[in-house]
Specification:
By secondary structure, this protein is of the alpha/beta class. The chain has helices at residues 33-37, 44-66, 85-102, 111-117, 164-174, 182-189, 214-226, 235-260, 276-289, 306-317, and strands at residues 2-7, 12-19, 23-31, 75-81, 106-110, 132-137, 142-149, 152-158, 265-269, 292-294. The strands form two sheets. The chain has a five-stranded mixed sheet with strand order 3-2-1-4-5, sandwiched between helices. The chain has a five-stranded mixed sheet with strand order 8-7-6-9-10, sandwiched between helices. The chain is globular, with a radius of gyration of 20 Å. Bound molecules: 5'-O-[(R)-(carboxyoxy)(hydroxy)phosphoryl]adenosine and zinc ion.
């Protein structure tokens, strides 16, 4: 089965053709980051307009690069939420129109379920075995899920304030390193000493699975205010110290979730899963406990349409087909596992 995936929930216009929910035939991602960079964050109205400009070209390129023709596509999977309503609307309307024109079914996919499913796209490695626990760390979400099937997810914990990626972005802004901040801080931290400046780890209840990053963000701000005059040669150590504080908590909680649920497999997904220290630490910590770790390649950590096609494939296998009256408003904020159809 060939599924065309379409993703426009935030600042990437993406399309992909995926075979049988796991083999990527093409994946095109057109990023708007250069435009939003000028404003220090995503401007929703600009994002919607940029999606309109890019969508036709991106979808056509994905089909062309896949080696199959438009008439061979069996189904369409499109992000229905969560995300920016105006941005979602562009991809969703386009998918609906294409499904009508090609006379093939389409299904609206939860963006977060897409991220969680991204670990099934690596045909070179063993995918996780159910049940497993997944740490989803992105710009808008930080949560741990207990995953019992391709379409069943239970939230074990989530952030009470900022998302992990949001914390990276805000600290980057404080250091005048621009938006988005994750990769910049990751690179800067490689030249710093993570132990030199000890920022607080917000464990909350240490046995629980909720997160909080706003205290850490304030600690970085206080440090910057106190050392205003001699910051230049400390930037690397600040980045390394901050990143270590985030990563220690993320790694501890996902491993503890696996131990609590007696799972042999964990997945780490979403934009922040690209972080080099997080990848290393979770892998090392899991090894000590005999737990298998599944992290997508960096190209599949950030927003992409292959993960949407993969998740949509499983929806369609369950007969969950969207119809022409569906819209994004009902689902712009919905959590994973909530079945609309
Ligand atoms: O999943 P994603 O592409 O979009 C959302 O659904 O939010 O995640 C974007 C987030 C941003 O906050 C970005 O700063 C962060 O992922 N990010 C990173 C890295 N690369 C991207 N955070 C830490 N280290 C990285 N290498
Ligand atoms: Zn995302």
């Amino acid at each position: 089965m060939y599924t065309l995936g379409i993703e426009t929930s935030c600042d990437e216009t993406a399309a992909s053709v995926v075979k049988d929910g796991s083999i990527i035939l093409s994946s095109i991602i057109s990023s708007q980051v250069d435009v939003h960079h000028l404003y220090g964050g995503v401007v929703p109205e600009i994002a919607s307009r940029k999606h309109i400009e890019a969508i036709v070209q991106v979808v056509n390129s994905a089909i062309e690069a896949s080696g199959i023709t438009k008439s061979e596509i069996d189904s369409i999977a499109v992000t229905q939420g969560p995300g920016l309503v105006g941005a979602l609307l562009v991809g969703f309307s386009y998918a609906k129109a294409l499904s009508y024109a090609l006379k093939i079914p389409y299904t609206g996919v939860n963006h977060l379920e897409g991220h969680i499913t991204s670990v099934f796209l690596r045909d070179s490695e063993e995918p996780p075995k159910f049940p497993y626990v997944a740490l989803l760390v992105s710009g808008g979400h930080t949560s741990i899920y207990y995953v019992t099937s391709h379409t069943e997810f239970t939230v074990m914990g989530q952030t009470r304030d900022d998302a992990a990626g949001e914390a990276f972005d805000k600290v980057s802004k404080m250091l005048n390193l621009g938006y988005p901040g994750g990769l910049v801080i990751d690179n800067l931290a490689k030249q710093g000493d993570p132990k030199k400046i000890k920022f607080p780890r917000s464990w909350l209840e240490k046995s629980g699975f909720d997160f909080s990053f706003s205290g850490l963000k304030s600690a970085v701000r206080r440090y910057l205010e106190l050392h205003e005059d001699d910051l230049n040669d400390q930037l690397q150590d600040i980045a390394a110290g901050f990143q270590a504080a985030v990563v220690d908590v993320l790694s501890y909680k996902i491993i503890n979730a696996a131990v609590t649920k007696k799972c042999k497999d964990i997945a780490v997904v979403g934009g922040v899963a690209a972080n080099s220290r997080l990848r290393e630490k979770v892998t090392a910590d899991a090894l000590k406990k005999g737990i298998n770790v599944h992290i997508p390649p960096i190209s599949l950590c950030g927003d992409n349409a292959a993960m949407i096609a993969a998740a949509g494939f499983h929806y369609l296998n369950e007969g969950r087909v969207s119809d022409i009256t569906d819209d994004v408003y009902s689902r712009a904020k919905s959590p994973p596992g909530q079945k609309h159809r």
